[in-house]
Amino acid sequence: MIIDGSKCKLVGKIKVPGDKSISHRAVILGSIAKGLTVIENILISEDVIKTIDAFKNMGVNIEIMDEKVLIKGVGIHGLKKPNTPIYCGNSGTTMRLLSGLLVGQKFSSILTGDDSLVKRPMDRIIIPLSKMGANIKGVKNKYPPLSIKPTNILTSICYKMPVASAQVKSSILLATLYAKGTTKIIENKITRDHTERMLKLFGANIRCKGNEILMDSENELYGKKLYIPGDISSAAYFIVAALLIKGSHIIIEDVGINPTRAGILSILKKMGGNIIVFNEREINCEPIGDIEVKYSKLRGITIEEDEIGKLIDEVPIIAVAATLAEGRTIIKGVNELKYKESNRIKTITEGLSNMGAYIKILPDRMIIEGVQELKPAFLNSYDDHRIAMALSIAALTAKGSSHINKSECINISYPEFYTTLFKLLQ
Ligand SMILES: O=C(O)C1=C[C@@H](OP(=O)(O)O)[C@@H](O)[C@H](O)C1
Ligand SMILES: C=C(OP(=O)(O)O)C(=O)O
C-alpha cells in the first residue's frame, strides 16, 4: 500500500467492525450452547473465520449472512471429531481458546497454524491444562502443532497466572466447563474479561471477585442473541490519526469501552488528547459508547507495567502517537509484545526509526523521544496486521509517499481498514 501523507485531515462519523476477541468468544460459546445463537455485527476477518471453520469442522451448523451469524449450538457434549487437523492460521486466540475446549472432548484433535503461529509459545496453556489432567502435547512441549487426546478425568485447578494473558485465562475457563470441582484463577495484572462476561451471559456459574475468578463445571449453556461492540483495537488507529493530524475531527460510534480492554483511551487523554466518550451504555454485559476525537498537541508520559494488559494490542499505535508527542514517553512492561504475530517491539521500532523516530529499547521497556515530524519511508509490516495499520497511520503524518509492504495482512483483523481510512480523509 502506498500512503501519501501530504496535507490531509480526518473528518467524519464512522463505525468500526465488531470486536475480534468478543467475536471469537461468541462463536465458541454459541457452538457449544444449546439452541440458537444469533450474532449481529460480528467481525468477519481471517482470524474469526478460522474459529468459525473449526466449529464447522466439528459438525456445528454456522450460517454467515452479511454481518449476522446464525449458530445452531450442539450443546456442551455435542461436538464431533474434526475430519482434519484444525487450522488456526495466524490466530493465537483460536489456538489457545480451542485447546481449552478440546481437552474436555471425548475425541482426539490436532491444532496447527501458519508460519507465525507455529513460532508462538503454547507452553503457557500446555502447563495449566496438563495440571488439570489434560492430555495435550506440543513440539518441544512448547510450540504448535498441538496434539490433544481424550483424558479420563479433568479436574479443576487453582492457578496463579504467571503471565498476564486473557487467552491463557480463557483456555483454563473453557476446560473448566468439563472439569470436576471449582477452578480458581488469580490474576496479578488485569487482562480483558470478555470470556468471564460472556460465560455468565450464556448461563455458566462464574464469579469474579477482585483479581480472582471462580468457576464450576457446567451441564449446559444456552444460546443467545448477541450484538458485538465495535473493536476498540481497530478504532485506535483512527483515534491516534485524528489526534496527530491538524484539523481532524471524527466520531466513532458503538465502540466497546470495557475498562479491562480500553486502556488506550485513558493513556491518550493523559497525553493531552481531546477525546470524549459519550452515549455510554451496556449491551450483552459489555460497555459500549461513542468516541469523539479532535486534533490535539500530545505530550510524552510514562505508561506503567500494570496498564499494559488493558492495551496490549495498542502498544504499536501508542508508539506512533509518542513519536510525535512533545518530550519523552516510557512504555514499561512490554515483554509480551515479543510473542505476538511478530516481535512487535522490534518491528514497530524498526518501522518508526526508518521514518526518523528516536526509540530506545531497554529490557522490558521502550523509551520514545518525540520528534517534530516523521519522514516517508519504505516500511515492512512483517505480515503483522497491527504493525501494518500502525505504520500506515505514521505514514499519513509524513509529507510524501510511504510504501507499506505486505499490507494485505490487515485482513487478519480489519479487512475494511483502508476503505474506512480513505473515506475519512479530506
Ligand atoms: O483473549 C484475547 O482475545 C486476546 C488476548 C491478548 O493476547 P494474550 O492473552 O496473549 O495477551 C491479545 O493480544 C489478543 O489480540 C487477543
Ligand atoms: C495478538 C493478536 O491476536 P492473536 O493472539 O489472536 O493472534 C492481535 O490481534 O493483535
UniProtKB/TrEMBL annotation:
Indicate the segments annotated as coiled coil, or none if absent. none
Which biological process terms from the Gene Ontology are attached to this UniProt entry? amino acid biosynthetic process; aromatic amino acid family biosynthetic process; chorismate biosynthetic process
Which InterPro entries does this one have? Enolpyruvate_Tfrase_dom, Enolpyruvate_Tfrase_sf, EPSP_synthase, EPSP_synthase_CS, RNA3'P_cycl/enolpyr_Trfase_a/b
Catalytic reactions on record = 3-phosphoshikimate + phosphoenolpyruvate = 5-O-(1-carboxyvinyl)-3-phosphoshikimate + phosphate
Q: Does the keyword Amino-acid biosynthesis apply?
A: yes
PROSITE patterns the UniProt entry points to: EPSP_SYNTHASE_1 (PS00104), EPSP_SYNTHASE_2 (PS00885)
For this protein, what is the EC number? 2.5.1.19
A single Gene Ontology CC annotation of this entry is: cytoplasm
Name its pathway: Metabolic intermediate biosynthesis; chorismate biosynthesis; chorismate from D-erythrose 4-phosphate and phosphoenolpyruvate: step 6/7
Quote the subcellular location field of this record.
Cytoplasm
Pfam families of this UniProt entry? EPSP_synthase (PF00275)
Keywords, sorted A to Z: Amino-acid biosynthesis, Aromatic amino acid biosynthesis, Cytoplasm, Transferase
Report the enzyme's class at the first EC level.
transferase
Q: Where is the Enolpyruvate transferase domain?
A: 9-421
GO MF entries: 3-phosphoshikimate 1-carboxyvinyltransferase activity
Binding-site residues, phosphoenolpyruvate:
K20, G92, R120, Q167, R344, R386
Q: How does it assemble?
A: Monomer.
Which family is this protein grouped under? Belongs to the EPSP synthase family.
Known role: Catalyzes the transfer of the enolpyruvyl moiety of phosphoenolpyruvate (PEP) to the 5-hydroxyl of shikimate-3-phosphate (S3P) to produce enolpyruvyl shikimate-3-phosphate and inorganic phosphate.
Under which name does UniProt file this protein?
3-phosphoshikimate 1-carboxyvinyltransferase
- The gene coding this protein: aroA
